[in-house]
Known about the structure:
The chain is α/β, with parallel strands linked by helices. 55% of the residues lie in helices and 18% in strands. The chain has 2 domains: 4-142, 3-Layer(aba) Sandwich (Rossmann fold); 191-346, Reverse transcriptase/Diguanylate cyclase domain (Alpha-Beta Plaits). It is built from 10 helices and 10 strands. A hairpin with a 2-residue loop joins strand 7 (255-260) and strand 8 (263-269). The longest helix has 65 residues, at 117-181. The radius of gyration is 48 Å and the shape is rod-shaped. Bound molecules: magnesium ion (MG). Residues 10-12, 62, 64-65 line the site of magnesium ion.
Amino acid sequence: MLQSVILCVDDEPAVLESLKIELRRGLGQGYLIETAESSEEALQVLDDLQLRHQDVAVVIADYLMPNMRGDELLQEVHRRSPETLKIMLTGQTTVEAIASVVNSAQLYRYISKPWESHDLLLTLKSALAYYRQQQLILAQEAELRRVNEELKRLVEDQSAIIQDRTFELERANRQLHRLANTDSLTDIPNRRFFDEKLQQEWSICQREQQYLTLIFADVDYFKAYNDTYGHQEGDVCLRLVAKSMQTALKRPRDLVARYGGEEFVLLLPNTETGGACAVIAEIQQRIRDLSIPHSGSKVSGWVTVSFGGTVAVPLSPHSPSELLQIADLALYDAKEQGRNGYVFREFP
Ligand SMILES: [Mg+2]
């Protein structure tokens, strides 16, 4: 580390010389003692020191000097380097002059001329100790700021990482949830999802005393279809039928799920028989539009579907399983009645 500088300024060379000698003797080798014979020269010296990044701990300036007085110089020093300690040497100075510089330049002390050697050294030693302490505090503050910034950066980095991980996890969870609730063949909701929804909608419609319609749909003579065209074609057929049903549903709470094999189930909350028939008609139309040949069918040359449903206003002690049972019976009726149509059974 560079030595701290003590700058002495006086227009009398003899005063400067004795200052220099006394300080060097009294303070030892730890300090660089610079001198200037005018305020202008002093400012020049300060500029040079600043260029060399050298610390100026103390400036001792005479009050009475030609051109720029000591108080003006110290004000300028204070402006440039507030932490430098300022000491003024005063001869016949008035109290007012000292008071003004105490405030404007934050004068550390003043020393009357001629000074006592002992006083001068004590003042300088106390000033230097004060200066070192100030420097230490500044350095600690800077270090504290640095550590704080570093910590802040680390916390931000960690938060960003956690945020990324959370996002990935959420996406994976959504994906898992979707997979767990989707039929892998037809890509529509599976029975698991349907069972959950049935319980939910039953509760909601029970609370609101609203109609809840449940319809089973079954592809007619599907075993014959597989026997005729093979299982791969059978899978394609089921996908097309599933898609037709799904696209026929318009309201967000309407649901179609694959119940198993060639059997699908429709759940239509807030829907009475009239609305349910309209949904069935829409699905039938879409399946007719598909025109999938079915030479094994005994009711048509094309793939057709039978529907059996029931409409309930949920009330205890009835349960969702009764809804399933009755719709299943209705589907049986539809098959008995020649397929490619629909039957509704009353809910008790
Ligand atoms: Mg003088």
